[in-house]
Amino acid sequence: MSEQADVVVLGLGPGGEYVAGTLAEAGLDVVGIEAELVGGECPYWGCVPSKMMIRAGNLLAEAGRVPSLAGAAEVTPDWGPVAGRIRGEATDDWNDRVAADRLAAKGGRLVRGTGRLTGPRQVTVGDRTFEARRGVVLATGTRPRIPPVPGLAPTPYWTNRDAIAAKELPASMIVLGGGAIGVELAQVFARFRCAVTVVEGQERLLSQEEPEAGELAEEVLRADGVAVLTSVRARQVGHDGTGFIVHLEGEEKPLRAERLLVATGRRADLAELGVDAAGLDPSARAVRTDGQMRAEEGLWAIGDVTGHGNFTHVSMYQAEIAVRDILGRPGLDADYRALPRVTFTDPEIAAVGLTERQARDQRLRVRTSVVPIASSTRGWIHGRGNEGFIKLVEDADRGVLIGATSAGPAGGEVLYGLNVAVHAEVPVERLRHMIYTYPTFHRTVEAALGALR
Q1: Residue 54 CB contacts under 8 Å (≥ 6 apart), including other chains
Q2: What is the C-alpha separation between 314 and 336, in angstroms, rounded?
Q3: d(CA 418, CA 351)
Q4: What is the CB neighbour count within 10 angstroms for residue 101?
Q5: pTM (two decimals)
Q6: What is the Cα–Cα distance from 108 to 28, expressed in whole angstroms?
Q7: Helix, strand or coil for residue 371?
Q8: What is the spatial distance between Cα 48 and Cα 179, in angstroms, rounded to a whole number?
């Protein structure tokens, strides 16, 4: 016999947990289904612990930039305190219990297990089936995409979860993939004296961002001792019991390392989720939704599974929209024109909206500018470690910014003003007449506005 609920939320990552808790607080009977830890990838293996690691690596680098501390920074650092801070002080089980108790306190019901759609408004978990009177919310996220490289599957390769959970620092590591996860972890491990090689199939790192961003990422990784190989792919992977052997296309000499980190993107498995039972295409790469996050009648989807970026902030943004719609409250449709993203390397590389190439591909008439952070007074004061730039992309016909990149110290924070400008379509002429605080990194935006050509 089926169990009844108003709403079933399948997946309790940040967005799913928010949907379940908020709807329960609103008085609905909500069932939240989670196979792993309540809170999802972000607090346990993604955003939060990775930034702890990055913070530690950045402190080491900054110490090396200060003459009086440079000698201390050359001493081989201990990986133990970093691993202990991430995996010891606040254990996964404790955090999971807190999150589960928080949902229960709001009136939600937590069901542990792997759920799948088995019909319209119907979800099955093990031998239990739930019928949702109002509907189902899909918030199942994504998992690492493992490329079909011969020999890779049976080896003890790492994904980001393994790298984050590592209690011992490897002597050497090969990273397959030069996206945000790959470059962030490559820099952290390198700063703790691990010999790192990054292998990227595209012609540059961070290939989805501006070319200047990829060039900067390569420059700073090389400065940290990372070997960067672009426009090359792995053709064979092996493991001899002590380490990895990676053969590259077009190269005779293989790479060898103690560990292999696979960071080649993420994917959603819609067939495993059973979306065909709700009338969706199980072979699709993502669940398509309308502006109110509806995938079908009585079915909403939020987060990574929608294909709008593997970012917690996107999941939370979509969660708010879905909650409003389920409660019958009016609200704006989802708008991704000003989607922000940050790669938390040192320097941080942040961007919002369209890249120059994307804008030109849309046949827009654009004006652009690139101004180095080092040219600003704050950049000069900062000295070593001031690598970075501001790049602006303007729709010349409308006179508004449609894209921007803020790379440099606190690049993610500097992005905020640019994010507002792109989102609100603030006229460039009005931005030019704004007062920019002196001396700040964001004052470089003023110079970049003046350099638009």
Answers
A1: 184, 187, 188, 344, 345, 346
A2: 9
A3: 9
A4: 12
A5: 0.93
A6: 8
A7: strand
A8: 18
**Mind listing the pLDDT tens digit for each residue in 304-315?**
999 999 999 999
Three-state DSSP class for 241? coil
> Which residue ranges form the domains of the chain, and what is each CATH number?
3-44+88-142+268-326 (3.50.50.60), 160-264 (3.50.50.60), 340-450 (3.30.390.30)
Dihedral-angle region of residue 345 (phi above 0 means left; psi in -120 to 50 means alpha; beta otherwise): beta
Q: Compute the distance between CA of residue 167 and CA of residue 190 in angstroms, rounded to an integer.
A: 16
Helix, strand, or coil (residue 135): strand
Prior bond of 439 cis (ω within 30°): yes
Question: What would the DSSP string read from start to end of 397-437?
Answer: TTTEEEEEEEEETTHHHHHHHHHHHHHHT-BHHHHHTSPPP
Distance of CA 235 to the CA centre of its chain: 27
Q: What is each CA distance from 123 to 17, 32, 267, 276, 299, in whole angstroms?
A: 17, 11, 21, 12, 11
Q: What is the pLDDT of residue 81?
A: 76
Mean pLDDT, 10 residues at a time, the chain of 453 residues:
94 97 98 95 91 91 78 72 62 87 95 96 96 97 96 98 95 98 98 98 97 98 98 97 96 96 96 96 96 98 96 97 98 97 97 98 98 96 95 98 97 97 98 96 97 97
Centroid of chain to Cα 272: 23
- Angle among Cα 283, 11, 15 to the nearest 5 degrees reads 105
Q: What are phi and psi of 339, to 5 degrees?
A: -75, 115
Q: Which of 438, 436, 439 is closest to 418 using CA atoms?
A: 436
Distance of alpha carbon 216 from the chain centroid: 19
Greatest Cα-to-Cα distance within the chain, rounded to the nearest angstrom: 72
- The token pair at 12 is 């309790």
DSSP designation for 190: H
Tokens of 5: 């609920």
Specify whether the CB–CB gap between 368 and 356 falls below 8 A: yes
How many other C-beta atoms can be found within 10 angstroms of the C-beta atom of residue 429? 10
- Whether residue 396 contacts residue 414, with contact meaning beta carbons closer than 8 Å, is answered with no
The predicted-structure confidence for 80-113, as pLDDT tens digits, reads as follows: 777 765 655 457 888 889 989 999 999 999 999 9
b (16+ CB within 10 A) / e for 248-273: beeeeeebebbbbbbbbebebebeeb
Output the pLDDT for position 390: 98
